[in-house]
Design a protein that fits this description.
Largest sheet: none
Order of helices and strands: HHHHH
């Protein structure tokens, strides 16, 4: 049903196939990012607290720690 709607919306089978692949792979990315967020060492979080790092001042410590998991999911 979704495939037919995507084909009727325009773009042909290629666009519909890409949209369906993106919908299918989002779960791998999501679960890998969640695993990455849970794998951040508590030492890193404690050091950020001690040095009063905030998301605004240091860009946050989470994105660099999660990035390898994001790449794995992609």
């Amino acid at each position: 049903m979704l495939l037919l709607l995507l084909i009727r919306a325009g773009g042909g089978m290629e666009s519909a196939a890409m949209a369906l692949m993106l919908l299918g792979t989002q779960w791998y990315i999501l679960f890998n990012v969640i695993a990455g967020a849970m794998a951040i060492p508590t030492d890193l979080k404690e050091a950020a607290t001690v040095f009063r790092f905030t998301a605004e001042s240091a860009g946050g410590a989470d994105p660099p720690a999660i990035f390898p998991y994001l790449v794995t999911g992609c």
